[in-house]
């Protein structure tokens, strides 16, 4: 009995090429048209999982967690020094939807740094900033500025404790002049003390006390 052979349908080559082009799971370095490169895990053609991205235009590097094409999870971001070309860490901490969110630390030029909470890429929540001049602020932040309750300690150990609004002293607060052994307690508005009481505070231990003590009322 004769056997009839039917020709096997051949699959177009572009089907195979398309399957190979789909990015899912761990892949070698993939280069974008603009020169950016990514090495790591993918899901449905999106960066997803652990991976490292290098931006060609700035030389910046992000290494950490990704979620559906965006930085999301824990990771570090570094940029090259313009002079030495060595990489300097700019931020290490948590991300959400491609922005700093959660707890993290940022290192600014000149040695300043912030450690604390972030929201939408801005300092928001509780955090501590070490300034270039040696001052330290610790307290509440809102949209990248001290806002709420916080303490600012100056290099000479004098400090302010109290309310803040939009980066300025605002509301009830205390300023400890430890170098002179005095304490000012009062109300502040936009960094200016409006009313309050000045009294001696640790005058005997102060390095440069005033000539005469303040009489008690």
Automatic annotation (TrEMBL):
SMART domains: MORN. Transmembrane segments: none annotated. One of its GO terms (cellular component) is acrosomal vesicle. Keywords: Cytoplasmic vesicle, Repeat. Coiled coil: none annotated. Its main location: cytoplasm. It is found in: Cytoplasmic vesicle, Secretory vesicle, Acrosome. It comes from the Eukaryota. The keyword Cell division does not apply. Assembles a suppression complex (suppresome) by tethering SIRT1 and MDM2 to regulate composite modifications of p53/TP53. Confers both deacetylation-mediated functional inactivation, by SIRT1, and ubiquitination-dependent degradation, by MDM2, of p53/TP53, promoting a proliferative and cell survival behaviors. May play a role in the regulation of spermatogenesis. This is MORN repeat-containing protein 3. It comes from Sagittarius serpentarius. The gene is Morn3.
């Amino acid at each position: 009995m004769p056997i009839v052979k039917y020709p096997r349908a051949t699959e177009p080559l572009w089907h195979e090429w398309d399957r190979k082009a789909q990015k899912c799971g761990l892949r070698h370095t993939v280069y974008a048209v603009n020169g950016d490169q990514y090495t790591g895990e993918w899901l449905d053609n999106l960066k997803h999982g652990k991976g490292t991205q290098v931006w060609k235009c700035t030389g910046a590097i992000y290494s950490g967690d990704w979620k559906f094409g965006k930085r999301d999870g824990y990771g570090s971001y570094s940029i090259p020094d313009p002079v030495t070309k060595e990489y300097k860490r700019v931020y290490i901490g948590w991300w959400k939807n491609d922005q700093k969110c959660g707890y993290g630390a940022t290192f600014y030029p000149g040695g300043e740094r912030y450690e604390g909470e972030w929201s939408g890429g801005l300092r928001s929540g509780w955090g501590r900033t070490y300034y270039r001049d040696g001052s330290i602020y610790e307290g509440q932040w809102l949209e990248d500025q001290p806002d709420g309750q916080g303490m600012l300690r100056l290099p000479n150990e004098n400090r302010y404790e109290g309310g803040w609004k939009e980066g300025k002293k605002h509301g009830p607060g205390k300023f400890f002049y430890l170098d002179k052994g005095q304490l000012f307690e009062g109300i502040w508005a936009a960094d200016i003390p409006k009313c309050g009481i000045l009294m001696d505070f640790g005058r005997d231990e102060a390095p440069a006390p005033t000539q005469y003590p303040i009489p008690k009322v």
